[in-house]
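2024-03-11 09:14:02 INFO queue: dequeued item Adenylate kinase, len=217
2024-03-11 09:14:02 INFO validating residues
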Amino acid sequence: MRIVLVGPPGAGKGTQAAFLAKNLSIPHISTGDLFRANISQGTDLGKQAKAYMDAGNLVPDEVTIGMAKDRMAQPDAENGFLLDGFPRNVSQAEALDVALKADDVKLDAVLDLEVPEDEVVKRIAGRRICRKDSSHVFHVTYSKPKQEGVCDVCGGELYQREDDSEDTVRKRLEVYHTQTEPIIDYYRTQGLVVTISALGKVDEVTERAMDALKGDK
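2024-03-11 09:14:37 INFO prediction written
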């Protein structure tokens, strides 16, 4: 299957993408991984992306699209892939359609993870990260530490990242609504969109997504 995964920040796209890709035996292709791989390998596209990033500028669509096209052309993606974080806007979606058509393939589904805005804010703004080890993550509601402000694992101080503040989260949501959400309507006209609720336990959402992709909506 060839799937595009969309949803607002905090919808759990990265988590669901990993589980779905494993269940469907297709590679999970995320924008972040594409950038890191190309930059670390020193590819031409990676050098271009790094130059823009070092200058504090957004990486142009054509560079991101080029990376995605190269990755989708790899042998492990021959029978399908799951795109996470790409396309990010309608112009990228249009470019993806052109690229797939050139290879005589098409998308099977666009999986839209739906989460109420207040829940997104609650999920992200409630996160607390350990200063000693950022892999230790807690939540003021869903995964409370035994002692407030103290990491259960190493005793480090727990803090809220600036990116996780409520104001920043709401700004990120505005960007999502303005730039990325329009691709849902774009794909809906092609009959590709499958919308599911991303509320509940991780395995419940995965099961819901698998059922929807199979057509058992």
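2024-03-11 09:14:37 INFO annotate: Residues 166-180 form the longest helix (15 residues).
2024-03-11 09:14:38 INFO item closed
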